[in-house]
Specification:
Lon_bac, serine-type endopeptidase activity, alpha/beta, Archaeosine Trna-guanine Transglycosylase, Chain: A, domain 4, five-stranded mixed barrel, single chain, 24 strands, hydrolase
Length: 796
């Protein structure tokens, strides 16, 4: 007997999601270039081709590792050209083969394929039993599968041996191609029959479950239809016998409730008409259910229900001060509104909008206001709302219709004069469903909201007694018509001192209770709190600070229980033992007087920060390079600063041709952080001047201000936050625009005590303050001329 395996070299045709078996006839379309090349190569090689299956259907250019090693050597019996470069191929499987190695991979795959001889059954009795069992299971599979006919059983009877029977059944099962490949991989016929029986039984189980689900669904639908017809017939019979539930009594009950509300005549008539409709309908009528829900919703509203406000200004202010540290602007505004309300009960106060960065207490102060003045309150989260119907509601004719959020808030507030908080009003969106911002125009207009109409109610509802407080993070995102209806109160970011006081008076007490500790078990020094503020949190509000305090308390609780200590004390010395290395470090600032390095100031959403500007001067051709993720406005400021210094070159010891013979590189450190805005103009001009004159800049001076081509210094925003950043970084002097003197009222007293503010009108004043030895640096130019030039420039 010859045991040498039969190996042939054939083109390989990978198929997606199809598995071919011996003696199987299959036709399919071929569109891939490599696959068509494999078919053409087979036609030149006795029409034989090795067909195997791809492991993943997403691969378009399969390699050796992308296909199963076991496939079938087939004969191509027919090729038909289709449209769009697609050919239809018909093949007939001959025998199993094992892909040994790829011999060619150019236009198509060629591989050596080893023939797998057909397996014979050694134990005839076991083989007969397996064949009979697989036929019976396949017959059962056909009987419960709708897409199969009895023709399959006839074709099965024509199979000659067990191997042909197994391959025929496996090729016709409706299952995943990976299951079929598993059958193809089994060479031993007895093992193949056993695996096939197991696969058939699994498929039968799945099909029976699917059939049960479909049958139950069909029965439920039939039952619902049957119950509906029976209920309708029962209603007719009861009506004929006079035994029906008396709809008149139901409608009369609604009528009585409506009349007891003493509503306006138009509103009352509208609701009574709905009662009359209900009276004429059967109890199980679908439209009656809609009317019943509508009346229940209307009656659930707080018509003519008012709460008594606690209009005692001193007690309200005391209550607000107790629950919130700082926020004096908000508190003063609320006190003003209450004072006007006391003097004029009919006054329709303006809508208050609290604008500020996240975590500064906008929502919590609004809730505290409601509590302090004794109003019921409700909160509406507006973030992400795109549908106008969320505000105005849906027409009650639609399935699943409901009132809008304003009416739902009034239902939950249970009074006509509550405080409603409209949270995140700047996060409203708009799309094809409508503009919810426009829907709020009527709600927030004190001249119109007395007759607000919700689409679901379709009757006017009085919102004029509601006190609305809105919150927003970015004022610029609120449309102008809506912003015009609100009184804007800006809440700035908290300073270090404010955060310290908030932590001591509120956050620590709150977290002690939440974490099961008391004052004797957990202590933290003021310097420890400062460490949390400076090195572990960098935010405008106090949310991260509260989370960090909570983390400290959790770690302290573990230490108390595991190490059996009585208390834990946190200081600035041991805070890293609990929280790890510092997350933030002090703003980078120059430690000594340097040439071309100036400390600027910037405003961010989490407070002020130091913004050093560096300028380097190199021999070149006048190229200007700006780095540090500078925005368009800041890049323009840099160009303005260079031009401004050029115009001043005649007054100072600066070469008039510096912009031709030198390259200027201006950089703002922390290049990964985007920066923009005009307020770094004076900083850039000073740094350029220092680099050109080779004179150092004072390291204890910080500055901010926009600059013009003629050297004028224009006002900026965010002075309070910027000054706090300068104070935090040890600055002794802050140069500010002259027009920002009025903003010094907002600056913290501790900053005013420690830092000297220098208002300036022109860049020459900035240079005189910031440049070291300014008066001694112009030996070749008379000081009087410089000063006269300064004075003349300012006067101009």
């Amino acid at each position: 007997m010859n045991d040498t395996p039969n190996i042939v070299e054939l083109p390989v045709l990978p198929l997606k999601g199809l598995v071919v078996f011996p003696d199987m006839i299959l036709h399919f379309d071929v569109g891939r270039k490599r696959s068509k090349a494999a078919v053409e190569a087979a036609m030149l090689n006795n029409q034989e081709i090795f067909v195997t299956t791809q492991k993943l259907t997403s691969v378009n250019r399969p390699k050796l590792d992308d296909v199963y090693k076991v496939g079938v050597v087939c004969n191509i019996t027919q090729i038909v050209n289709q449209q769009e470069d697609i050919i239809r191929v018909t093949i007939r499987g001959k025998y199993r083969g094992i892909l040994k190695e790829i011999t060619t991979d150019t236009n198509c795959l060629f591989a050596k394929v080893e023939e797998v001889p057909r397996s014979e059954i050694t134990d005839s009795e076991k083989g007969d039993a397996l064949v009979r069992a697989v036929k019976n299971v396949f017959e059962q599979y056909i009987s419960i599968t709708p897409s199969f006919s009895t023709d399959y059983l006839y074709k099965l009877s024509l199979c000659k041996d067990a191997s042909e029977i197994a391959d025929y059944i496996a090729s016709n099962i409706i299952t995943d191609y990976t299951n079929k490949q598993t059958i193809l991989n089994i060479f031993d016929i007895e093992a193949r029959l056993e695996a096939l029986i197991e696969l058939l039984l699994e498929e039968i189980n799945v099909i029976e479950i699917e059939n049960d689900i479909v049958e139950k669904a069909r029965q439920n639908i039939e039952k619902n239809q049957r119950d509906y017809f029976l209920r309708e017939q029962l209603a007719v019979i009861q009506e004929e016998l006079g035994e029906q539930d008396n709809p008149e009594s139901e409608s009369e009950e609604y009528k009585r409730k409506i009349l007891n509300l003493h509503l306006d005549e138009d509103i009352e008539n509208t609701l009574l008409k709905e009662c009359a409709k209900l009276k004429k309908m059967g109890y199980s009528n679908q439209e009656a259910t809609v009317i019943r829900t509508y009346l229940d919703t209307c009656l659930d509203l707080p018509w003519n229900k008012f709460t008594t406000d606690k209009l005692e200004i001193h007690k309200v202010r005391k209550s607000l001060d107790k629950e919130h540290y700082g926020l004096n602007k908000v508190k003063d505004r609320i006190i003003e509104q209450l004072a006007v309300k006391i003097l004029n009960r009919k006054n329709n106060s303006q809508i208050i909008c609290l604008v500020g960065p996240p975590g500064v207490g906008k929502t919590s102060i609004a809730q505290s206001i409601a509590k302090a003045i004794g109003k019921n309150s409700a909160r509406i989260a507006l973030g992400g709302i795109h549908d106008e119907a969320e505000i105005r509601g849906h027409r009650k004719t639609y399935i699943g219709s409901m009132p809008g959020r304003i009416i739902n808030a009034m239902r939950s507030a249970k009074s006509m004069n509550p405080l409603i908080i409209l949270d995140e009003v700047d996060k409203l969106g708009q799309d094809y469903k409508g503009d919810p911002t426009s829907a709020l125009l009527e709600v927030l207009d004190s001249e119109q909201n007395s007759t607000f109409v919700d689409h679901y109610l379709e009757i006017p509802f009085d919102l004029s007694n509601v006190m609305f407080i809105t919150t927003a993070n970015d004022l610029s995102l609120i449309p102008a018509p809506l912003r015009d209806r609100m009184d804007i109160i800006e809440l700035p970011s908290y300073t270090r001192e404010e955060k310290l006081n908030i932590a001591k008076k509120h956050l620590i007490k709150k977290q002690l209770e939440l974490n099961g500790l008391d004052k004797t078990q957990f202590k933290i020094t003021p310097k420890g709190i400062y460490s949390l503020i400076d090195y572990y949190t960098r935010e405008a509000g106090v949310r991260s600070l509260e989370r960090t305090i909570a983390s400290l308390m959790r770690k302290s609780a573990v230490k108390i229980l595991m190490e059996e200590v009585d208390s834990v004390s946190i200081t600035d010395k041991n805070v890293q033992e609990f929280l790890g290395a510092y997350k933030f470090t002090d703003d980078t600032k120059s430690k000594r007087n340097e040439v071309g390095v100036v400390n600027g100031l910037a405003w961010t959403s989490v407070g002020g920060t130091l913004l050093p500007i560096e300028v380097a001067l190199m021999p070149g051709k006048g190229n200007i390079q700006l780095t540090g993720s500078l925005g368009e406005v800041m890049q323009e400021s840099a160009k303005i600063a260079i031009t401004c210094i050029r115009t001043m070159s005649e007054k100072y010891i600066i070469n008039n041709d510096f912009y031709r013979k030198n390259d200027i590189h201006l950089h703002a450190p922390e290049g990964a952080v985007p920066k923009d805005g005009p307020s770094a103009g004076v900083t850039m001009a000073t740094a350029i001047f220092s680099a050109l004159t080779n004179m150092p800049v004072r390291s204890d001076v910080a500055m901010t201000g926009e600059i013009t081509l003629r050297g004028k210094v224009l006002p900026i925003g965010g002075l309070r936050e910027k000054s706090m950043a300068a104070y935090r970084n040890g600055m002794k002097t802050i140069i500010i625009p002259y027009d920002n003197i009025k903003d010094l009222e907002e600056v913290d007293d501790v900053v005013k005590e420690k830092v000297e503010f220098k208002p300036v009108k022109h860049i020459t004043e900035v240079l005189e303050i910031a440049i070291c030895n300014y008066n001694k640096s112009f030996a070749k130019t008379a000081n009087t001329s410089v000063k006269d030039g300064l004075v003349n420039t300012i006067r101009q």
